[in-house]
Amino acid sequence: MTGLTSRFARLSATAARAVDRAMAEPARYCVGGAGPVALQGVFHEAYAEIDVAERAAVAATRPVLFVHGPLPEGAAPGDRVEVAGRAWRVACLRPDGHGGQRLDLHRLDAPAQGPPADPGAWPV
Fold first, then answer.
1. Into how many domains does the chain fold?
2. Is residue 61 part of a domain?
3. Is residue 116 part of a domain?
4. Which stretch of DSSP H or E encloses residue 108?
5. Domain range holding 61?
6. E strand or H helix at 23, and its extent?
7. pLDDT, average across residues 54-62
8. For the segment 66-80, what is each residue's pLDDT rounded down to a tens digit?
9. SS3 helix, strand, coil % of the chain, rounded to 5?
10. In 3-state terms, what secondary structure has residue 30?
11. How far apart are CA 110 and CA 105, in angstroms?
12. pLDDT tens readout for residues 88-102
C-alpha cells in the first residue's frame, strides 16, 4: 500500500505543477502588518462547495485561492491577500494534504451593503 500512496503523491504533485503552469496568477500575501510576499496561486472567484448530508444539500459559493507550496511564515486567518486586482482577507486556511493550501477569502474592497439612502431608489 505504501508504494501506491507514494505513487499517488507523485502524480498529485505533477498535476498540481501542471495546473499552476496553466492557470496560476501572481498574488501578494501580507502576514499581519508585514510587507507583502509574492506567490503564485490559482484563483476562483466563484468556487462552489456542496455538502450532502442526510438528504439535505448545502451549497456555498466563495472566492478561493489555491496555493501549491508553502505560505509565508506565520500565515493565518485574518491576513491580507491581493490577487486579481482586488484585496481580500483570508477567512480560513485549509491544507490539501499534498503540500498546498486552499485559502477561503472575503473581499475587502467590496461596496457597502444595505438599503439605498433614497427610499425612491428601491426596486418596484
1. 1
2. yes
3. no
4. none
5. 2-110
6. helix 2-23
7. 68
8. 998 889 999 999 999
9. 20, 50, 30
10. strand
11. 12
12. 999 999 998 777 899
